[in-house]
Amino acid sequence: MIDVEEAHRILQHRVEPGPVTDVPLREAYYRTLAAQVCCDADYPPFDRSVMDGFAVRAADTVGAPVMLQVVGQVAAGATPGQRLATGEAIQINTGAPIPPGADAVVRVEDTEPCASGRGLRVRKAVDPGQFITPRGAYGRAGQAVLEPGAILTPINVGVAATAGAARVSVYRPVTAAILATGDELVDIDRRPSGGQIRNSNVYLLDALFASAHVLAERLSVVRDERDAIRGRVEEGLRFDVLCITGGVSMGAFDFVPEILRHLNVDLWIEKMAIKPGRPVIVGRAPSGCLVFALPGNPMSAFVGFELLVRPALAALEGRRDGAPVPVPAVLRGSLGSTGNRRSYLPARARFNEQGRWEARPLEWHGSGDSLGGANANALVMRPPGSPPAGDGDRVEVLVLPGH
User: Which residues pair with 178 in a beta bridge?
Assistant: First the structure.
């Protein structure tokens, strides 16, 4: 058995980024950048007003209140046509370019019109540059604003659009397949009978892939028969990632490890020193497909995805930030001692009034208890050989993305 840190080192060194493609920006949402995005011009491209008010010469406002003559107007999107002279003001809107000769903006609320209609009383003096954003203050032409590895989240899409990136270089979307094995599995719209259980894992894994912005194909459930499993695994090896659930332990019908070896899958990991989720297999097929074989128990599959599959998906898109990082938390409740494996327990975590994480373990009865994970947004991580822990003790938690 290997520990989590070693598993992450294996993934980091052996999983290489996938192919790169150039696409229109609107087709790149939540994709990962493969090249810098740089400003194609200064931004803003001109000295710009940040207030509705009047463009003035700051020197003309010294000793306010003072009287100025309004000689024009500049709206957002317009090009100023006249130069401001001493004693003059030009009405200006937020976002409009500063007219030549002006070096400050007086806010509307700091002025009042004169009865004559063209005069302006300025009640408050301004300094040179006040309420003006200079040209290039946010970014200069050629300046990188997004680096490779950045995810094109909505805010980053806005940044790319501002920089003029009509097309971007991104990693091609990862293709993935999910394969559930087991004679006992029936779909969720059927009531189980006898020794049957609902096939919740395929929905769990489908949602986990979706949370990583990967659209996975669900292969049909396969019975615990060697030839049937082999055929379905071969089908799954056409994808970038194949995630199998079930059939990976040491039971009489757990054929997946044997089949993967027969298909020449290079097995990097065969067991993990974790609980739940010890019988985990990770490797690469000759086709290049990354194979993850996770246990059939729902919480074991969940933990295996978060610890292994999610970091691998990030690495395929040129990111090294996929491995979950534990954060310190205050335990609310109690926990028993752990054995010789690192334990991951479902919990509800929150920031308390002091700005620290608190974690309350959920009532959970082991890896087969998917109901016990309801509303979990974190996993309490406990090292091997940890003693019992009580309320107020320090623990470490993995805060789960998208929960």
Answer: 218, 243
How many Cα neighbours within 13 Å face the side chain of 179?
27
Task: Please report whether residue 321 resides in a domain.
Answer: no
Q: Count other Cβ atoms within 10 Å, centred on residue 251.
A: 11
Interatomic CA distance for residues 172 and 32, integer angstroms: 9
Same domain, 57 and 164: no
Per DSSP, the three-state class of 355 is coil
Q: What is the DSSP string of 247-280?
A: S-SSSTT--HHHHHHHTT-EEEES-BSEES--S-
Say how many C-beta atoms besides its own lie within 10 A of residue 354's C-beta.
Answer: 7
141 confidence band (pLDDT: 50, 70, 90): very high
Shared domain check, 280 and 233: yes
**Distance between CA atoms of residues 146 and 45, nearest Å:** 19
Distances (CA, A) of 367 to 211, 372, 400: 22, 9, 17
- In the DSSP assignment, the letter for residue 98 is P
Contact 345, 319 (CB under 8 A): no
Residues 182 and 280 occupy one common structural domain: yes
Respond yes or no on whether the N-terminal peptide bond of residue 276 is cis (omega within 30° of 0). Answer: yes
Domain CATH code at residue 344: 2.40.340.10
Cα–Cα distance between 133 and 36 in angstroms, integer? 25
The percent of residues above 70 in pLDDT, for the chain, comes to 98
Same domain, 219 and 273: yes
- Stronger pLDDT, 253 or 357, i.e. the higher one: 357
Dihedral sign of CA atoms 233, 307, 317, 219 in order: positive
The structure tokens listed for 241 are 């990632």
Say whether pLDDT at 183 is over 90.
no
Range of the domain at 386: 327-399
